[in-house]
């Protein structure tokens, strides 16, 4: 059995993201999207849409849904689940925690 | 109307594929057959005038459904088989190979075909069109660096072709009969941004000019313009609009009105037959029931979903805000609603050269929004504008024009 330790990376200040919004975060050649829900919870997913690799951070957050800015594919950013055409593949999600006003992204 | 046990979809494109899936998503357990003239599984057409032409690799189809998904959902896809007639009394469809398929409910999702250039000398040996994967491959083979390509038509397809041809290093001339590009689709200010971008990319744009004839010139071709000028070229690509594929419906005696005429539930004049996508015209509740036929990818999907519900007995009216996008170079154009319903335009500067025009009716209602710029700059605001349009909002003009006012806030108000 392998145990992979989670590395926590500082992504941004908690205030950098408005409620019900998203920002892009790039780290080690990979792009992520970090969300703040209407009820002030934080989440993170892969940054690119599973349809045509478009940056989701340019999309619109409504409630717990991120809508892709290219063709309006929709995902639940809490689970990564694709919510209908044209997207059918889920987004990978990452753990997030707050520490001293910072948003930390958990990478395996 | 009997309970539906077998539902047949004619046309395995965007609308047909979505409808077949949506039947299952809405709990239908009977037989679902997706009949398509093309041999392929359903695939997306928008990439055909974009990545399929510009990518280094020979294009593959962007399939909408994997064989596994078709299986999982119990959808029988019959590819390479065309329907030739609908026998309404017998509730059966005749196929080109002589077979018959029975239906309880039928969906016509036959799309549209490219309009052919009707001038002397034009024929399949010299003018190429773009609707299918095979046509994209044929067209792509002409776009060699240095080849002289003439594109006929300054609509979305023609313009995307011009951008793709330039990306592949071809010399491009684009000829449009109307006095400006995209005359029917977007306001002049937005068309200007696009024309400027094409000119900067080295496309020679000829507007307000007709075509007299196509002539042979050895192995090459020549286009004789209405001005008398003769233009030799290596390839001629035409994007001069599409014609709804209504033949089956017409022969079956269904009502036709610039497309297979359907009501707000997408039912044709026969209550067991429905139509969706590019092939149909429908009354739009947001615009006083104005009859529209849209050639737009999202409309095909949304109508596929809506038709599935109606075929299962739903009574909802189709009222999605029309939405369209086009990609050319680093620019994206997005249009929500119907710009020609507007009487006044309010412009918002989105930065990076991106602009968003709001179109307001005489009573101040927001009826459309059109934007051009990098996709990431325009998409969110167009989406929010679309929601305002759906709500028949009458937003404050000063707030619309002010880039510091968040549109999301207007939605809440
Ligand atoms: C090159 C190109 C680029 C595009 N780009 C964009 C874009 O950027 N943005 C946008 O919003 N829209 C775009 N569109 C439009 C969009 O692709 C269409 O609106 C959409 O495909 C319509 O879906 P449909 O299912 O109605 O028709 P189609 O996708 O055309 O599918 C109809 C299918 O029915 C089949 N069929 C027809 N008759 C029969 C028959 N008798 N029997 C069996 N099968 C039959 C056809 O072979 C076809 O496969 C583009 C279209 C093209 C061609
Ligand atoms: S790229 Fe995201 S929906 Fe198409």
Your description of this structure?
The complex is a heterodimer of chains A (108) and B (413). Chain A is mainly beta. Chain A has one domain (7-99): Rieske [2Fe-2S] iron-sulphur domain (Rieske Iron-sulfur Protein, 3-layer Sandwich), CATH 2.102.10.10. In chain A, 0% of the residues lie in helices and 44% in strands. Chain A is built from no helices and ten strands. In chain A, the strands form three sheets. In chain A, strands 2-3-4-8 form a four-stranded antiparallel beta sheet, with no helix packed on it. A three-stranded antiparallel beta sheet of chain A has the order 1-10-9, with no helix packed on it. Chain A has a three-stranded antiparallel beta sheet with strand order 5-6-7, with no helix packed on it. The radius of gyration of chain A is 13 Å and the shape is globular. The two termini of chain A are 15 Å apart. The mean pLDDT of chain A is 94. Chain B has 413 residues and is of the alpha/beta class. Chain B has three domains: 6-113 and 243-311, FAD/NAD(P)-binding domain; 116-240, FAD/NAD(P)-binding domain (3-Layer(bba) Sandwich), CATH 3.50.50.60; 330-412, FAD/NAD-linked reductase, C-terminal dimerisation domain (Enolase-like, domain 1, 2-Layer Sandwich). Helix content of chain B is 25%, strand content 30%. Chain B contains eleven helices and 26 strands. In chain B, the strands form seven sheets. Chain B has a five-stranded parallel beta sheet. A five-stranded parallel beta sheet of chain B has the order 9-16-10-11-12. A five-stranded antiparallel beta sheet of chain B has the order 22-23-26-25-24, sandwiched between helices. In chain B, strand 22 (323-328) and strand 23 form a beta hairpin. In chain B, helix 1 (14-25) packs parallel to helix 8. Chain B is globular and about 60 Å long. The model of chain B has no long low-confidence stretch (mean pLDDT 96). The A-B interface holds A 20, 54-55, 58-60, 67, 69-72, 85-86, 88 and B 18, 21, 44, 64, 69, 297-298, 301, 323, 325, 375-377, 379-380, 383-384, 408. Flavin-adenine dinucleotide binds next to helix 1, helix 8 and strand 22 of chain B.
